[in-house]
Amino acid sequence: MADNKKDTKKIIVQNKKAYHDYFVDERYEAGIALAGTEVKSIRNGGVNLKDSYCSFEKGEIFALGMHISPYEQGNIFNTDPLRKKKLLMHRREILKLQGLVQQKGYTVVPLSLYFSGSHVKVELGLCRGKKLYDKRESDAKRSADREIDRHMKDRSHAD
User: Fold this and answer.
1) Residue 142: helix, strand or coil by DSSP?
2) DSSP-derived 3-state class of residue 92
3) For residue 67, which of 85, 55, 54 has the smallest C-alpha distance?
């Protein structure tokens, strides 16, 4: 009998700024080491990935800039909202990412946070930075798509 709870993926928060600032070449899934009050705060939606990024230290990967608000009922058990959080990945994945970041100028950015069953997971993106003209181009494409959708909606209502 298969356990269906493991297959569910409930997205908590997405890093929209990362999609605006970077081209995402590859995606990886990582676990994250959290305190109990941090998990409760995440369940309440008290997390922000806006300026977060990843760094490598001694063969381990950490998420920096990920803001998890203190849990209201947490009192003494609350941790620093901006502390660096250890990400849990296989060693060969970490070494591969670290090599790409050092050699090719990539950066690793948390794209989203979600529940996989009862575990909190992070979707990491191996990203290349966008130039200003790339950002303008993607903004123009998005506004054109929005305009097309608006016209199609108006046409369908007229029928």
Assistant:
1) helix
2) helix
3) 85
